[in-house]
Design brief:
- By secondary structure, this protein is α+β, with helices and mostly antiparallel strands.
- Helix content is about 15%, strand content about 20%.
- The protein has 4 domains: about 50-210 and about 220-235, Immunoglobulin-like, CATH 2.60.40.60; about 290-360, no CATH class; about 375-535, Macroglobulin (MG2) domain (Immunoglobulin-like, Sandwich); about 545-675, no CATH class.
- It has 17 helices and 25 strands.
- A hairpin with an 8-residue loop joins strand 13 and strand 14.
- The radius of gyration is 29 Å and the shape is globular.
Length: about 675
Amino acid sequence: MEARTKAKLALLGITVLASGVAVTQTLPRSSAQKIKAAFLSPAEVDFIRPGLVFDILSVTIDADNTVRYRFRITDPRGVPLEREGNATPGPVSVSQVLAYIPKGTGIYTSYTTRTQVSPINGQRAIQASADTGGAYTKISDGVYEYRFGTKLPADYDKTATHTIAAWSSRNLSEFSLSTNYAAKTYNWVPAGGTVTETRHITSNEKCNSCHGQVVAHGSRTTVELCVVCHTPQTTDPDTGRSVDMTEMVHKIHRGSSLPSVVAGNPYVIIGNQQSVHDFSSVVFPADVRNCTSCHLEGTAGNQHLTNPSRRACGSCHDDVNFASGQGHANGLPQVSDAQCSRCHVPTGEIDFDASVSGSHVIPEHSSSLPGMKFQILDVRNTAPGQRPVVTFKVTDKTGAPVTIAGIGRLALVMAGPTADHVDNDTAITEDARNAPGSDGTYTYTFTAAIPAKAMHTWAVGIEGYRNQTLLPGTVVSRTVRDAGKNVVSYFAVDGETVTPRRQVVSIDKCNVCHSSLSLHGGSRNQIEQCVLCHNPTATDVARRPATAGAPESVNFKEMIHRIHSGEENSREISIYGFGGTAIGFNEVRYPRSRSECGACHVNGSEQLPLPEKLMSTNDPRGLLNPAPPATGACLSCHSATWSAAHADSNISPRLGESCAACHGSGAQFAVDKVHAR
């Protein structure tokens, strides 16, 4: 991944709206902190019974090819709901699409369509859409039948897979609750028999791992719904672009690195009511070559490996002209998809070959890299004023010892105390490549001493990489950094019990979106290592030009909150990095609601009060400087002036922050409650 992409940590820009989730009276509040219904009283839950369950019961086709289907709507306890919302809380709206998969295509064609006329250019387009002209009939409490306004054509294929995709929403806004969504698809073969052909390329779990809960077009929540309308038959008449799921999603996720965008042609789709959606600034949070971030593997998936096509591959590689062969392998034109799999087999013999998996190998993840593994075996001389002696081991992934002399980077980083790593203002980083030793085991003595007034627990972390040439002597030869996983060791400097730094977020949560997050040349890849340097005193002052104004804090919590706030941040956010380059983050498009603290935080670490002994943040560009611990965290997302004024009025010059009085766990405006949706 290019350096700018890594540095920006920019995330996908798909609109994500709050989604209701089925909640019962026994739901623990701690397990659903983002759901407003979790904070209802038992009496309110008993009356409202928030949540929505939608099931399709049966489908019939009349002699005149009219399709009818029956569905049931209930609350999570199975109590029937009334569609109009007169007898039960909250009206329920339902929409539906009727589609089929033509034999051997694996792609839907929708029967239910509309004609869209562009007010810009007058062009007309047939688009898959929800059915119109139908009628609902109540069968019994909670059970309804819908008669489609669209009839099946006389010659429809009775042996093909047919699908009804329906989505529903229960509006509970009159109770100050969110809207509950539910969706269902029903597959059947009209001639009878087992459904054998379905479309299953990705999953809701894959999408929602980054997006939290994708809700598009107001109320549509599942991939199974998306694919029945976003088909090759559907285009945007304003731009002429296809909104086929395959093409659109690949292009959206590649965003700013899409060849056509790099060439200066924005990727724009004009949607409902002429809403303009420009995806040209989207930066995928992982490497775009990591296809399995979205695609399914195993017997139910692998379509990306086994079924390459011009439509799929050309959506990411949109600088390839398959008709002329320009940009294609060996300049060969491709007039159909029939030959694609002959060259692009699922897996080849070497990395970077023409196979699907080989051509998408991320160099830093190549299986041919020997790897680096670090161990910190011992830390001695750890009293204040002493120079620590660190014994460490470096091996490759097979356990063979690594000679460290002359490798690209090997550094030891020392910081403390673990409450916030600020006793020395900045972490002490020293080059350990000349440490004496043998057989992969080395001993390094710091040139810097532990400060004379140091107390409590301190930490030493190790980082580094080797430059490795892959496939030397071939036309695909390349040199990559083979970085080791950071290891951090803790030690007491004053005889106290060793207390590792508190865990606030986890690298596993980062990698749900980022896949394999690493920065500063790939050598820093564990949160425990990041916070050694990104502490409350740290800013970009050493690299920011005097003409660029006050320094920006790079304390971990403020920096990460502000980066992920991106385009929603009300103030400019840029950090000057190595080489004096300004990296702006105001275009970052975070793919989920920022109120979902648990997407990053662990162990309820976002809750108040925060642990004692935390330091205020040196925040020269912030509205409050220094910013006390809770204030610094909250104002990095809530960046408006009035938010800072509220915080400022609740900070005592003598006693500090009073945030927990109102926002502490269980309080009226607790963090989890005010962030609930």
